[in-house]
Design brief:
The chain is α+β, with helices and mostly antiparallel strands and 624 residues long. Helices cover 14% and strands 34% of the residues. The longest helix has 37 residues.
Length: 624
């Protein structure tokens, strides 16, 4: 008789079903509930050899290491950082507020000492980095993480809604790996004001989909998990299947609307909103179960009605170099594709749907790098920088390591090619990079090992200048407690803090229901009380100037930050636009750029910053 044993390894598109001959056994379903990563040495070795023949030795070894890590967690021989360490959510709010107040009370004296120390050490060393390391426990320099608290769903995907709440979704941990329950998913709406929330079932198992936010605030989700690997399926059809379905989510009524099916299934696709609110859909493992990555490019055109049904059209073909390619809207209105392979440097023209090549990237950014787009509209001419960081080189033979190459492209002159961007202090992949209201970037988590969860990185790094300036450095800041490698997410919240969701190295259902999160308070929030926006419009049009009034004088600037829509380190909606601003006695007059290619239509977080660089709590502003 033949016994089918399926081994699913989430970090890649390639999962194979292995046929293991065993006398006297019946035919069993592959991937039943209660799936375990722990197998006998003989079964593991047989699977490794089979995967080598299908996907190559390097990729197969990554799978093997992944299974080893998760098996050690199951057996209790690998510790999960932060396990059992948590605080009641409401208590973390009180604790964080008390910590800020304690720093405020000593600010004046400490700032005088800091100024003197900076001058002294700067003169001795020629750099302030040494000083930053000396006072590395000071929240004024390194920020502070809250104690971990529970969000009872794995945050594989995280989207900030314009209601100010966060929506998470993931696979159903009870039925994970069960081919008969492949459409079961879970979701959760989380409120930053209380750090608590409530369940909201997704329409199906939309984890590992692509998602962005439309101009009216709807969340658009393309693809997801149609079926888990199934060893009972015909040969060549036993791997993951991507679903053809896509949905919109109305955050005001909190209801889903099914949109017309795509032409091909997609698991790990990227979606990118254009200047006219249409969405380009690329990449993703298709619906056949054959591990094929679709080359069909499709476009979603939303219906004007927030609960309406739009249209899906195939517009051409393009061979992506991998899953979840990083894509960005350029000032020209064209779409940039950057990676994950170094040769994937292209522009897509929405007027013709033709792709044109750009200079080759400096490095691969496989599994998984991050990207950011920063536009400075406060200067003439405007400037835009697109940054891609981390990931690893996917090169045989067996050893792959996180890349030490971060790079940037001039959005106004992409033909000039890619240039070096300052490197992380610790090379990493599976990390998250979050853009902050002051233009800086915070990189958290990830790992240094070959794949998934090996050598997890608990350190965080803060870029020393606005993202549009490639002359800064990355400085280590306060480390987080929870492990945040593969399947972690991090997003900016409206109060200018950052929410970090733990990874799922412990993939048990019990761990999912006790999933941890932390909130990072950046150094700028320890400088003093935040300025308060007392008056600002709820909407504005392109090219319009309007007043933003505050509770203090000497306001220094204003930015628009697009709400996050992130998964697998790929925030498909993230961008920061620094606005042209003129000072008023108690606020600013700001001007929205005239181009929807610089500011795609939609809801943004409007932050104002005072002369000390302290950002306000955001007001949501709809640009149309």
């Amino acid at each position: 008789m033949v016994h089918l044993v399926a081994f699913a390894v989430r970090p890649t598109a390639f999962v194979v079903a292995l046929l293991v001959s065993k006398a006297g056994t019946g035919l069993a379903n592959a991937g039943p509930p209660g799936f375990t990563a722990c197998q006998t040495a003989a079964v593991e070795q047989t699977l490794l050899e089979r995967e080598k023949s299908l996907i190559g030795p390097s990729h197969a070894m990554q799978h093997s290491h992944m299974r080893k890590n998760q098996c050690e967690v199951e057996r209790g021989t690998r510790m999960v950082p932060g396990k059992g360490i948590e605080m009641k959510a409401s208590k973390t709010l009180e604790d964080d507020a008390a910590a800020r107040q304690a720093v405020f009370k000593r600010n004046s004296k400490v700032s005088q000492l800091r100024s003197g120390a900076t001058t002294l050490l700067g003169g001795l060393t020629g750099s302030t980095r040494a000083y930053a390391q000396i006072v590395s426990t000071d929240p004024l320099v390194v920020g502070r993480w809250s104690s971990p608290f529970v969000i009872p769903v794995v945050g594989v995907s995280a989207v900030l809604l314009h209601t100010g709440k966060v929506m998470f979704w993931s696979y159903d941990p009870v039925n994970y790996h069960n081919p008969k329950k492949g459409n079961d998913g879970v979701g959760y709406i989380w409120n930053p004001a209380t750090r608590t929330g409530y369940n909201i079932p997704p329409p199906e198992n939309i984890w590992c989909a692509g998602h962005t936010i439309l101009s009216d605030g709807r969340v658009y989700v393309a693809g997801g998990n149609l079926r888990y690997p199934d060893g009972n399926a015909p040969p060549g059809q036993q791997a993951w299947q991507g679903t053809l379905t896509n949905y919109t989510f109305n955050p005001l009524q909190e209801i889903w609307a099914k949109q017309p099916d795509m032409q091909r299934g997609r698991w790990y696709p990227t979606v990118t909103k254009l200047a006219d609110n249409r969405v380009v859909i690329t990449s993703g493992t298709d619906e056949t179960g054959s591990n094929a990555i679709t080359n069909v490019v499709e476009v979603f055109t939303p219906d004007p009605n927030i609960n309406g049904i739009g249209k899906i059209n195939a517009v051409g073909f393009h061979n992506p170099s991998g899953l979840y390619p990083l894509q960005f809207l350029l000032p020209s209105g064209q779409m940039l594709e950057a990676g994950p392979g170094a040769g994937s440097s292209f522009q897509l023209n929405p007027a013709t749907w033709n792709w044109s090549g750009l200079p080759r990237m400096m490095s691969d950014h496989h599994y998984l790098g991050t990207g950011a787009s920063y536009t400075d509209a406060s200067v003439t001419p405007n400037r835009q920088l697109v940054m891609v960081a981390g990931g690893y080189d996917y090169n045989p033979p067996l050893v792959n390591a996180p890349v030490a190459v971060n790079e940037w492209l001039d959005g106004f002159n992409p033909a000039a090619g890619w240039k070096p961007f300052p490197q992380f202090q610790t090379a990493r992949h599976n990390h998250n990079t979050v853009m902050l209201p002051d233009g800086a970037m915070l990189t958290v988590g990830g790992n240094r090992g070959v794949y998934g969860y090996e050598e997890p990185e608990l350190s965080a790094e803060l870029y020393s200048k606005p993202a549009g300036d490639p002359t800064g450095i990355w400085n280590k800041v306060a480390p987080h407690t929870i492990q945040a490698a593969y399947h972690s997410t991090a997003i900016l919240l409206p109060d200018a803090t950052v929410l970090l969701s733990q990874d799922d190295m412990d993939s048990s259902a019990a761990a999912a229901f006790q999933h941890k999160a932390q909130v990072y308070t950046p150094p700028y929030l320890f400088k003093g009380a935040q300025p308060v926006i007392t008056s600002a419009p709820a909407s504005a049009r392109y090219g319009q100037s309007f007043n933003v009034l505050t509770n203090r004088t000497a306001m220094a600037g204003a930015v628009l930050v697009a709400p996050a829509a992130t998964t697998h380190g790929n925030d498909m909606h993230q961008r920061v636009i620094k606005l042209q601003a003129q000072q008023l006695t108690n606020g600013l007059t700001v001007t929205v750029p005239a181009s929807s290619a610089l500011v795609p239509p939609g809801h943004y977080m409007l932050f104002v910053l005072d002369s000390a660089g302290i950002p306000s709590v955001a007001r949501f502003l709809q640009i149309s």
